[in-house]
Design goal:
mainly alpha, three-stranded antiparallel sheet, disordered N terminus, binds zinc ion
Length: about 200
C-alpha cells in the first residue's frame, strides 16, 4: 500500500508528545527549534484512531503512510524531529495493533536473528537491505534534515535486523520491493494479519 493524498486541513491541531514506547530510541534532546516542529496533515479522526491504537497521544504525525482496507491507519509517518526538539529516526511507525502483534510473534520466534545471519552470507539480500536503508533516509530527508541522526535509519538497517516492526512499517508504506525483509515478514505473518483483510 502506498501513501494517499492527504490534503492539509486547517482544523488539525498539534498534539503534545507522549511517552516513547518503541525500542528505537531517539538521540539526546537538543535545543528546541520552532521552525522544525512537525505540522500534522492528518484528519482529526485519524489522530483519534492513532491515539486509540497506540494507547497514547501520537507524536510528530506528518501523514498516514498506509491504511487498512477499512481506512484505519496501519503506518504513521512521523517527523524526524519532534515538537520538543527530540530527533526521531523511526519515520515509519507501525500502529495497527493486529499488525504490531503479528510482528511481535515473528520476533519472538527468532526471525530477526535468522535474517541477520542471512545478511552475512547472502550478498544480494545484503545489497537490497542497504538499498532499503538508503530509501528510508531519502524519504525521511523529505521531512527535513536532522544532523543528530544523519545516516542513521532504523530497525538495524543497513547491516542488521533489530526491529521487524520498523521493516514491516517501511514495507507497508512504500509497497513491495523496497524493503525485502519487511516484505518477507509480511508474507510470514499473512495468516494472522495482512493489509488487505480488515481485522480492526
Ligand atoms: Zn480495518
Amino acid at each position: 500500500m502506498t501513501a494517499e493524498n492527504e490534503a492539509p486541513e486547517p482544523s488539525t491541531t498539534q498534539l503534545p508528545p507522549g511517552p516513547q514506547q518503541h525500542r528505537d530510541r531517539p538521540g539526546p534532546r537538543v535545543e528546541h527549534d520552532p521552525g522544525a516542529a512537525p505540522r500534522p496533515r492528518v484528519r482529526e479522526e485519524d489522530l483519534a484512531v492513532l491515539a486509540d491504537q497506540l494507547g497514547r497521544e501520537p507524536r510528530g504525525v506528518v501523514e498516514i503512510a498506509a491504511r487498512c482496507v477499512c481506512g484505519r491507519p496501519t503506518v504513521v509517518r512521523t517527523a524526524p524531529r519532534l515538537a520538543d526538539g527530540t530527533p526521531f529516526p523511526t519515520s515509519y511507525y507501525l500502529t495497527h495493533p493486529g499488525a504490531v502483534s503479528a510482528v511481535s510473534t515473528l520476533e519472538a520466534g527468532g526471525l530477526m536473528a535468522q535474517m541477520t545471519e542471512r545478511l552475512a552470507r547472502e550478498p544480494g539480500l545484503a545489497a537490497a537491505h542497504l538499498r532499503a536503508h538508503q530509501d528510508y533516509l531519502e524519504r525521511r530527508a523529505e521531512l527535513g534534515e536532522v544532523p543528530e541522526i544523519a545516516g542513521i535509519s532504523a530497525g538495524g538497517m543497513p547491516s542488521r535486523v533489530k526491529c521487524l516492526h520498523v521493516l514491516v512499517a517501511h514495507a507497508l508504506a512504500r509497497g513491495p520491493g523496497v524493503n525485502p525483509l519487511g516484505d518477507e515478514a509480511l508474507a510470514a505473518m499473512a495468516a494472522s494479519w495482512r493489509p488487505g483483510r480488515c481485522t480492526c
